[in-house]
Amino acid sequence: MVLESLESLSVTSALPLVSDPLKMFGSSYFSMTKQDDEPSGDPLTGRVVVLGVTGSIAAYKAADLTSELRRRGADVFVVMTRAAREFVGAATFQTLSRNPVTEELWNEGEGWQPGHIELADKADLLLVAPATAHSIAQFAHGLAPDALTSIYLATPAKVMLAPAMNGKMLDHPATQENLGRLRERGHLFVDPEEGELACGYEGVGRMASVENVVEAVLIALA
Ligand SMILES: Cc1cc2nc3c(=O)[nH]c(=O)nc-3n(C[C@H](O)[C@H](O)[C@H](O)COP(=O)(O)O)c2cc1C
Fold it and tell me: How many CA atoms lie within 13 A of 121 on its CB side?
């Protein structure tokens, strides 16, 4: 089982947390250390990763993440929220993923089938990195105002989230409740890390490193 293998590799640190993700999320909330520096072959060949990018300052990390996943053989389709596009342009993701980027529900492509349903059907993994408090809340409550949240509701694929936000946002009971709901649904999480946050605070909330997210994807799709 994926969760078992994730747990067996888990080396979650006991960080002095502003909010303790382990306390909040239990065993499916994990962080990992990369075991091996070099990708062996193309372990993700033939796997489709739909990468949701939401409106966090950490959206720039999703560009590297796209490259790394593609380098390991994954077919990466990026779906951006409107807020994410305030941080990084769609052209960056289109170039790095070598696939079209989904930006809006209403101009999704030319086939008869809505593009978001096509993506939801073909995904092996829906990875949302970075995942904002807002998108997490929408997933938790089943709201589907945009392409990413619609794909979330429509996909039978595994879901993995890498939250990124200010420590106080992460610590808020509303966010904790929402994350708890998503954990109960069996979704996978990659711990946010401790450090200096873009908002000027220190604490937990910074999106996990690209390296750790890639490692989690490799395990989830093994
Ligand atoms: C400069 C800036 C940085 C932000 N960083 C974050 C963040 O890291 N995490 C977060 O949850 N929201 C952050 N926000 C707020 C979100 O962009 C906002 O809640 C937005 O509605 C999220 O929409 P989305 O989830 O649909 O992408 C930031 C806003 C600004 C202006």
Answer: 6
In a domain, 14, yes or no: no
Q: Is residue 151 part of a domain?
A: yes
Residues facing residue 52 across a β-bridge: 79, 128
pLDDT at residue 9, rounded to an integer:
34
Q: Which domain holds residue 69?
A: 2-7+44-220
Residue 20 covered by a domain? no
Span 26-85, pLDDT tens digits: 334 444 444 444 555 689 999 999 999 999 999 999 999 999 999 999 999 999 999 999
Q: Cα-atom radius of gyration of the chain, to the nearest Å?
A: 16
Q: Where are the beta strands (DSSP E) in 135-191?
A: 158-163, 188-190
Pocket of ligand 1 (CB under 6 A): 54-58, 81, 83-84, 132-135, 164-165, 169
Domain count, the chain: 1
